[in-house]
Amino acid sequence: MKIAVTGATGQLGKLVVEQLKQKVEADKLVALVRTPEKATELGIEARAFDYDKAEVLAEALSGVDHLLLISSSEVGKRAEQHSNVIEAAKKAGVKWIVYTSLLHADSSTLSLAGEHLATEKALKESGIEHTILRNGWYTENYTGSIEGALGTGAFVGSAGDGKISSAARADFAEAAAVVISDESHKGKVYELAGDAFYTLTDLAAEISKQSGKTIPYNNLPETEYAQILKSIGLPEFFADAIASWDTSASKNDLFDDSKQLSKLIGRPTTSLTDSVKAVIK
């Protein structure tokens, strides 16, 4: 039996592969990546795999039984790219696909939800057995802004008092490895999020506590926050998207208290304190 992981050299994919190597023999794992030469450090077979090149994907999936389809990073192109992979999987005889979707994709106001729902629909229509991992927010999505907040003296956003149940990227990677290596998870949909929630005010307080500096949280209108992001060099599309995701967070779209993630990995999810500590050393 072979297990393949798409995007295996990405931030999530690398972590998944490392987890899988603890559960499955390395010769049963395949890294599906755009540039196989850059995947040598993974220590497993690597095959060229480009979501956009539909005509060669089936060949790359030859002999693969289980496929972890990590969602593409190209927002706006995901639905088509994922469809290409699913069609190729059908041709190649892949027996099971595990897909990384979005927390509460069927009710979320996040602009990302549509493409994830389209992919979930394509999986249902494919006839291939599948499992949906509806991943919540990575804590790193926010802790990545700590350095900037320390520099400017404030943490800014548009999430208001929204509850955010994020978890570390490593937590989600471990869950993906647990699921793809155990067929008892076939047919299930998991809503995955951190054990505890926080607001951005809480995050600012934690940054203040650990840094010894007073870092308040400044809540801004979505358009004003987007403008700040553009002023520091983010592309217009991306800045607008990030600000809109914060607005969705203000509606508790990033909140979930089912603790399905910690149940899957058999331990508590990484705390906000530890995630902040990893940045402020």
TrEMBL record:
Pfam families: NmrA (PF05368). InterPro entries: NAD(P)-bd_dom_sf, NmrA-like, NmrA-type_oxidoreductase. Residues 2-256 form the NmrA-like domain. Transmembrane segments: none annotated. It comes from the Bacteria. PANTHER family: NMRA-LIKE DOMAIN-CONTAINING PROTEIN, QUINONE OXIDOREDUCTASE 2. This is SDR family oxidoreductase. It comes from Draconibacterium aestuarii. The lineage of its organism: Bacteria, Pseudomonadati, Bacteroidota, Bacteroidia, Marinilabiliales.
